[in-house]
């Protein structure tokens, strides 16, 4: 059995790694000509880490992860701490420490694990045909590849999704823009083992530790879609929007090297429950593009990879049955996470002002129980729950 994987991001490399570990032949194609990860870092909660452990790269990802021992919220304007509590109950309750990881580091590690030489870059799929004997992908240069199955891990703007569904679907704008990047860790901003989030005015600013004595940061603010802000002007935009926030936030903005921050409008996809058409299956953002508000987008892709690779290994004589079982096993779980993230986004970004103000008040009396219950609630339900 030969499987063609389209996309060499986290989903594509992780499913390829799972298939390789089961002795299944894999060909990986990627339309970009070189690895250029989108976003500075990624939250890998314990469900995602357990998947990476299963795929055999647990030690490598642990070395890349930042030590995140505490979670705290602070008032955006005064800087006053609203709540601060240890994350040990989450780690202990789920049986696995979580790690924020620089995305470029994670991507490089996964590519090395599957073998960079096994990835064909600059291969843009322009057509897919299938019959009883296999599936054929045609590339922009006119070349073709035929395999028994095609797994589309080609991201939120997936071209393959329309082939599976039989029609195009439009993503929905969540109403806010996320600015993210990496800066040197600085205890004057927050504790170097803290995940700290400043909240107010329907906006957020947060930092998390990652390996290499760095902070992963992000800013969320409500904006119309389609704003054209040059990369070198992103820090100026942050100063205009967040310039009156508390001193630690100003220190963070001052630490950002102009031209290095990523500015990303946040869109998601209404849950879809058709992930498979014949010999073609969707995986990761192609199947369940989600807002980052609960930190489960990458973890969900890793869950897909573990489930699908295991099913294909168990049903080598009937791979189409494996795809059917994969769809049945994963669509409800993924849809739940998409809707949870959408709901959290609405609260944090002021869709209902009263609900947002109530959340701020709750944070001021939070002892960690409610927040950690929410985190654990997102984690459970995966293949290793």
TrEMBL record:
<keyword id="KW-0503">Monooxygenase</keyword>
<dbReference type="InterPro" id="IPR036188">
    <property type="entry name" value="FAD/NAD-bd_sf"/>
</dbReference>
<dbReference type="InterPro" id="IPR050493">
    <property type="entry name" value="FAD-dep_Monooxygenase_BioMet"/>
</dbReference>
<dbReference type="Pfam" id="PF01494">
    <property type="entry name" value="FAD_binding_3"/>
</dbReference>
<dbReference type="InterPro" id="IPR047712">
    <property type="entry name" value="HpxO"/>
</dbReference>
<protein>
    <recommendedName>
        <fullName>FAD-dependent urate hydroxylase</fullName>
        <ecNumber>1.14.13.113</ecNumber>
    </recommendedName>
</protein>
<dbReference type="GO" id="GO:0004846">
    <property type="term" value="F:urate oxidase activity"/>
</dbReference>
<keyword id="KW-0274">FAD</keyword>
<keyword id="KW-0560">Oxidoreductase</keyword>
<dbReference type="InterPro" id="IPR002938">
    <property type="entry name" value="FAD-bd"/>
</dbReference>
<comment type="pathway">
    <text>Purine metabolism; urate degradation.</text>
</comment>
<dbReference type="GO" id="GO:0019628">
    <property type="term" value="P:urate catabolic process"/>
</dbReference>
<feature type="domain" description="FAD-binding">
    <location>
        <begin position="2"/>
        <end position="338"/>
    </location>
</feature>
<dbReference type="GO" id="GO:0102099">
    <property type="term" value="F:FAD-dependent urate hydroxylase activity"/>
</dbReference>
<dbReference type="GO" id="GO:0071949">
    <property type="term" value="F:FAD binding"/>
</dbReference>
<dbReference type="GO" id="GO:0006144">
    <property type="term" value="P:purine nucleobase metabolic process"/>
</dbReference>
<comment type="similarity">
    <text>Belongs to the FAD-dependent urate hydroxylase family.</text>
</comment>
<keyword id="KW-0285">Flavoprotein</keyword>
<keyword id="KW-0520">NAD</keyword>
<keyword id="KW-0659">Purine metabolism</keyword>
């Amino acid at each position: 059995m030969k499987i063609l994987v389209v996309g060499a991001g986290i989903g594509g490399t992780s499913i390829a790694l799972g298939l390789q570990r089961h002795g299944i032949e894999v060909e990986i194609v990627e339309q970009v000509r070189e690895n250029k990860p989108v976003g500075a870092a990624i939250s890998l909660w314990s469900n995602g880490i357990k998947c990476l452990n299963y795929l055999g790269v647990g030690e490598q990802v642990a070395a890349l992860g930042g030590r995140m021992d505490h979670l705290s919220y602070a008032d955006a304007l005064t800087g006053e701490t609203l709540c601060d509590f240890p994350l040990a109950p989450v780690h202990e309750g789920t049986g696995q420490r979580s790690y924020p990881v620089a995305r470029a580091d994670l991507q490089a590690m996964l590519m090395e694990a599957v073998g960079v030489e096994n990835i064909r870059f600059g291969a843009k799929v322009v057509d897919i045909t299938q019959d009883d004997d296999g599936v054929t992908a045609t590339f922009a240069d006119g070349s073709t590849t035929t395999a028994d199955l095609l797994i589309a891990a080609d991201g939120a703007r997936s071209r393959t999704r329309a082939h599976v569904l039989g029609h195009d679907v439009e993503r929905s704008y969540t109403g806010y823009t996320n600015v993210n990047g990496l800066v040197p860790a600085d205890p004057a901003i927050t504790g170097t083992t803290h995940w700290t989030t400043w909240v107010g005015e329907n906006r957020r600013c947060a930092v998390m530790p990652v390996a290499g004595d760095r902070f992963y940061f992000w800013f969320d603010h409500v904006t119309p879609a389609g704003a054209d802000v040059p990369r070198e002007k992103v820090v100026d935009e942050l100063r205009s929007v967040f310039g009156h926030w508390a001193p630690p936030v100003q220190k963070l903005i001052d630490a950002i090297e102009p031209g290095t921050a990523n500015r990303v409008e946040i869109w998601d996809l209404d849950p879809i429950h058709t992930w498979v058409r014949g010999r073609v299956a969707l995986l990761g953002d192609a199947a369940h593009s989600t807002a980052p508000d609960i930190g489960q987008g990458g973890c969900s892709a890793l869950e897909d990879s573990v489930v699908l690779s295991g099913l294909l290994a168990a049903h080598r004589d009937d791979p189409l049955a494996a795809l059917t079982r994969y769809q049945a096993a994963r669509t409800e779980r993924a849809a739940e996470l998409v809707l949870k993230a959408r709901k959290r986004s609405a609260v944090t970004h002021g869709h209902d002002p009263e609900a947002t103000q109530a959340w701020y008040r709750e944070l001021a009396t939070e002892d960690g129980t409610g927040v950690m219950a929410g985190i654990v609630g997102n984690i459970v339900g995966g293949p290793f729950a």
